[in-house]
């Protein structure tokens, strides 16, 4: 019999936390005023680096791709990428630099912020965008302020702010991706329509023909766009919301397992049990056991 969650050591729970990650660890965060003629020879970092041009401009080269950065440009260096920097004679350069990592965790940062260095659709994949006069600039400055202060509160605040920076960047990148804002807005609306349809038909499921009729898109395009925005295909999403609903019912409804299976669209309780354990790592009964402590008879 498996141990209940509240009896486990923290390390023992990691396998059950598939969609949760530890916060980023900041190695260095500072504002750098480059002296006249400053340059950074080619080097390779083992960690991530955000480099924000606060004032002036400089010439970067990352993995052979040139970037002539100006005020407001934000670059993302990934681990093990060769990069170098040269300032421009007679021009100032001030940057905000943050070096960070996620420990031993294989954090899907590229998926979060829409970064793919192998993406043939972008000839400048490391340029995250221009954030001059954008709230992200203030977040970066505040992060560096707290990082430079002593004390646990400031260190935790800077770590929290970095996660906020990455999420702001993700929102910006997801909103601005695509060739047309209007087209993207329309596409997003259709994806939400598809997702809501799946939500509302949790018990009965769906056929792809229904989603095609609903959106006017082909099956393959639906799968491609849905996975791009939600991180999974429509079929995977259906399984996920069914299991999440099952956990909710197990917690709140008092229904038997067979009744829960039926409520979320599974007529065979044994098949439902196998799917739940395969996806969640524990059985539904074990999951319920992790929610409550044993209470003495009164």
Automatic annotation (TrEMBL):
Domain (HTH araC/xylS-type): residue spans on this chain: 192-290
Organism superkingdom: Bacteria
One Pfam family here: AraC_binding
SMART domains: HTH_ARAC
Keywords attached to this entry: DNA-binding, Transcription, Transcription regulation
Record-given protein name: AraC family transcriptional regulator
């Amino acid at each position: 019999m498996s141990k209940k969650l509240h009896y486990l050591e923290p390390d023992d729970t990691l396998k059950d936390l598939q969609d949760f990650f530890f916060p980023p660890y900041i190695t260095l965060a500072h504002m750098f005023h480059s002296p006249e003629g400053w340059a950074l020879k080619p080097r390779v970092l083992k960690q991530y680096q955000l480099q924000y041009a606060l004032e002036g401009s400089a010439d970067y080269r990352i993995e052979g791709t040139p970037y002539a950065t100006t005020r407001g440009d934000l670059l993302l260096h990934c681990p093990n990428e060769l990069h170098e920097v040269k300032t421009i004679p007679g021009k100032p350069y001030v940057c905000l630099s943050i070096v960070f990592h996620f420990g031993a965790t294989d954090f899907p940062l590229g998926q979060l912020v829409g970064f793919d260095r192998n993406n043939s659709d972008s000839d400048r994949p490391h340029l995250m965008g221009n954030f001059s006069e954008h709230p992200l600039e203030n977040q970066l400055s505040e992060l560096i302020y707290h990082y430079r202060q002593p004390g646990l509160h400031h260190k935790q605040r800077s770590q929290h702010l970095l996660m906020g920076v990455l999420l702001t960047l993700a929102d910006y990148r997801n909103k601005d991706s695509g060739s047309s804002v209007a087209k993207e807005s329309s596409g997003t609306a259709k994806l939400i329509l598809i997702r809501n349809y799946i939500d509302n038909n949790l018990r009965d499921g769906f056929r792809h023909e229904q989603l095609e009729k609903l959106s006017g898109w082909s099956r393959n395009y639906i799968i491609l766009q849905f996975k791009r925005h939600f991180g999974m295909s429509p079929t995977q999403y259906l399984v996920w919301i069914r299991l999440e609903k099952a956990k909710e019912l197990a917690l709140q409804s008092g229904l038997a397992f067979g009744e829960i299976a039926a409520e979320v669209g599974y007529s065979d309780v044994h098949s439902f049990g196998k799917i739940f354990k395969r996806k969640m790592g524990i059985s539904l009964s074990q999951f319920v056991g992790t929610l409550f402590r044993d209470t003495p008879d009164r």
